[in-house]
Design a protein that fits this description.
Order of helices and strands: HHHHHHHHHHHHHHHHHHHHH
Largest sheet: none
Strand content: under 5%
Shape: globular
Helix content: over 70%
Radius of gyration: 22 Å
Structural class: mainly alpha
Number of helices: 21
Number of strands: 0
Length: about 425
């Protein structure tokens, strides 16, 4: 049984309740809490799960205690394998006596805690919003531990800025930067953008972005990205990694429709909500990143994780607010309702497509890395036995399957 598919399907059906008995807010909130708790539980019980454990497990088991880690810091910096912040986190967790699985529990718990805090800004349709987040960001939650920590601290930085706690925000900016190399520039730019309180973004700019997305979907933009990257102070290793990622690209993908209607919807709805409005520039920046990196899913997926939760919260917040009109024929209200209905239908169709695609893709892997492996497997097997089996699967995946998936399905897994 595929653990991820179970999560997707259960959330899909639970999210449908958001569109039943619309005035029963307490019921919807209770369903959301149940859905959120169940999602957290199912993601957190994973046990030596996924292909990335081939990298993470040896590092965790071989890490030194915090004192030795600090003393031998130069050795870790020279290796350049993992970021210093994540390595120190692993060192601390191991020093506290936590197993590899318990370390993943800490990361998963932290991420869902931050998401819950962020979702408090959404008034309704929270379960539907959670479904979209999980469909788009499942890989971050279950596999990429370093970036999951970085994204969590990034979101806490944004929340701190919303609450005007800028000293705390700077602290989270620092933690974002040392957990994953992708976090430094993004958090620095986002922190600056969060200070632009009094400068509003006209909906016209979103319309321009949405149509620019359609144009870029048909253009070869490798040279432009590489030109900009060479101007920025990137290291040679980062530039080499970027060039490698740009080798894999696809112009037409199903997710193009999702991005287009999302940006267009934000452009259509007027936004005057004072609390969430401060987030508008970061969301706009996130859309710019999505538009210009749209063709390169393998590269985009590493960056969009910082913005997807914010875009979801921002969109669901402004969609709730009615667009006022003096038109007695209420034609504008009808158009607004139609816009929302189309948006919801497109999202559900995309979610169905994603679930089906991932089911076919993940079950086609002979390595079986997506077959369920949970903490409850310990009832029948020892930790050593499970670890050996799962690491063998991960080894087979990287050796025999990653290349073909990387050039095909995985790079374009939203195709």
């Amino acid at each position: 049984m595929n653990l991820l598919i179970i999560i997707f399907v259960v959330l899909f059906f639970l999210s449908l309740t958001d569109f039943i008995y619309l005035n029963q807010k307490k019921i919807h909130q209770s369903i959301f809490l149940f859905s959120f708790g169940l999602t957290y539980f199912l993601f957190t019980i994973k046990y030596y799960y996924g292909g990335d454990i081939a990298l993470y497990v040896p590092v965790y088991e071989g890490i030194e205690n915090p004192k030795q880690f600090i003393q031998n810091g130069s050795k870790y910096q020279q290796s350049g394998y993992f970021e210093t912040g994540y390595l120190f986190f692993c060192s601390l967790m191991k020093y506290l006596g936590l197993s590899f699985w318990m370390m993943t529990v800490v990361i998963s718990s932290f991420y869902f805690y931050v998401i819950y805090k962020l979702f408090t800004y959404i008034s309704d349709k929270k379960t539907f919003a959670l479904l979209i987040l999980v469909i788009l960001e499942y890989n971050l939650i279950f596999a990429t531990y370093r970036q999951c920590l970085s994204v969590s601290f990034f979101l806490l930085m944004i929340i701190s800025c919303l609450n005007e706690k800028y000293i705390k925000a700077i602290f989270f900016l620092f933690l974002t930067s040392i957990m994953h190399k992708s976090g430094f520039y993004i958090s620095l730019i986002a922190f600056f953008l969060m200070t632009l309180k009094r400068i509003e973004i006209n909906g016209v700019f979103y319309w321009i972005l949405s149509f620019l997305l359609l144009i870029i979907a048909f253009l070869p933009i490798n040279d432009i990205i590489l030109f900009i990257s060479n101007i920025l102070p990137f290291s040679q290793s980062s530039l080499s990694s970027l060039e490698h990622h740009l080798m894999f690209g696809r112009k037409l993908q199903v997710i193009l429709l999702l991005y287009f209607i999302l940006i267009s919807s934000v452009a259509y709805f007027s936004e005057k909500y004072s609390k969430i409005k401060q987030m508008q520039w970061v969301v706009f920046f996130g859309f710019i990143v999505i538009v210009f990196l749209y063709q390169y899913f393998y590269l985009l997926v590493r960056i969009r994780s910082y913005f997807i939760p914010l875009i979801i919260v921002y969109a669901f917040t402004i969609f709730k607010r009615e667009k006022k009109s003096l038109d007695t024929s209420f034609s504008i209200e009808k158009k607004t309702l139609l816009f929302r209905q189309v948006f919801v239908i497109v999202l559900y169709l995309f979610n169905l497509h994603s679930i089906r695609f991932r089911y076919i893709e993940q079950n086609s892997l002979k390595s079986g890395i997506y077959n369920s492996s949970t903490i409850f497997s310990r009832l029948n097997k020892t930790e050593k036995k499970i670890k050996q089996e799962q690491l063998h699967k991960a080894e087979m995946y990287w050796k025999n399957e990653f290349t073909s998936i990387g050039k095909g399905n995985r790079i374009n897994e939203e195709k």
